[in-house]
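HTH luxR-type domain-containing protein
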Amino acid sequence: MNMFAGLSVHEIVQTYSDTLIRIAVQQTKNMSEAEDIVQEVYMKLMRQKKPFDSEAHLKAWLIKVTFNKCKDYFKSSRVKKTVPITEEMTFFSKEEQIVLPEIFELDPNERLIVYLHYYEGYTTAEIANLIDMKVNTVGSKLRRVRMKLKVILEEGS
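Tokens:
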């Protein structure tokens, strides 16, 4: 396998940009910062020396680096006022846009767990590995989030 699991940089950007932007927007609540973070992730990828075993390994690496860059963003002094979600964010489906305000009410770890589980199809064990959290913690957070979102969505109906 070559450096990027058989994919060109262009193919990686085409394949994973929407996923990474979704994660970054959900974490930062700021489209401009999300785009900057994803750009930083791709720059880090270009400096990556160790080859990826598979496309799944590459995807997991991209997600983990994006999440870590989001955490770094909150530690930095560049945290700005959030920019509202708009129609230009075409990478979110109409259904996703309806529940985004509720998703944004969750804490950043809960948002990431929901995204990785429901949108990317990761298991609780895979999520735990990606974000360095215990499997049981991920499972209990996922259950709590489901209950929280159910209450929020029922109140809104």
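The chain has a mean pLDDT of 83.
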